[in-house]
Here is the input.
Amino acid sequence: MDIDEIETKIIEEVEAESGFMMQLRVHNTFDEQALTTLLKTIEDYNRLLGNSKYINRDVVFMLTSTLEIIRGIENRFDAMSDPRKKQVSNAIRKLSRDMDYLLDLRSRPKNL
Here is the structure.
C-alpha cells in the first residue's frame, strides 16, 4: 500500500459507516476492533512516511478532530457514569500516543 492509499484509508476508517467514530457517535457503540484497525493504520502510515516531514493535512485534521470528539464523549460518559468511559479513556490514551509519535517525528530536528 502506498502513502496516498493509506491516507485515504485513515480518513475512511474514521468517516465510514463501519468506522470507529461513526460507530461511537451515531450508533453509540464502542467498536474495539474498529479502533484497533485505525491504530494499526496510523502505525502503518508512520512506517511508510519514514523520515519524511510531510503529513497530509486532511489526515492530521481528521485525527485531531477525532481525538477532540472522543474527549467530549468521555466527558459525557463521565457525567452519566457510563461504564464505557474506561474504554473511551483508553482509546484517547492510545490515539494520543500514536498521534504524538506521528507529529513528533516530523517536527524533530534531524541532527541533534
User: Anything to note?
Assistant: The chain has a mean pLDDT of 84. The CA atoms of residues 3 and 48 lie 6 Å apart. The helical segments are 3-15, 20-25, 32-49, 57-79, 85-107.
